[in-house]
């Protein structure tokens, strides 16, 4: 399976960094996470998401949004709010959330041609 980061976009835009440590009981997490990924793609202004998890259990998800309105739409989505509540009750030992306005963005991709 090939991994690739979300492309660099023309700024400004927003990055939401969600860093988590999960509990041992992840009952229902996978299904809810899949639904949240499906839902967020429907938000006008959603640009993409990067995710990484280390073997020790630290997870980092970075979601990108074109503007503050898109971010607000996602933050206030009722199904997303219910998932947040369930996350605090069942799935997360701890988490942090950081919202940043991106002022500079660039990328690199190695060419497959010699």
Automatic annotation (TrEMBL):
<keyword id="KW-0560">Oxidoreductase</keyword>
<dbReference type="InterPro" id="IPR007138">
    <property type="entry name" value="ABM_dom"/>
</dbReference>
<protein>
    <submittedName>
        <fullName>Heme-degrading monooxygenase HmoA</fullName>
    </submittedName>
</protein>
<dbReference type="Pfam" id="PF03992">
    <property type="entry name" value="ABM"/>
</dbReference>
<dbReference type="InterPro" id="IPR052936">
    <property type="entry name" value="Jasmonate_Hydroxylase-like"/>
</dbReference>
<feature type="domain" description="ABM">
    <location>
        <begin position="12"/>
        <end position="86"/>
    </location>
</feature>
<dbReference type="InterPro" id="IPR011008">
    <property type="entry name" value="Dimeric_a/b-barrel"/>
</dbReference>
<dbReference type="GO" id="GO:0004497">
    <property type="term" value="F:monooxygenase activity"/>
</dbReference>
<keyword id="KW-0503">Monooxygenase</keyword>
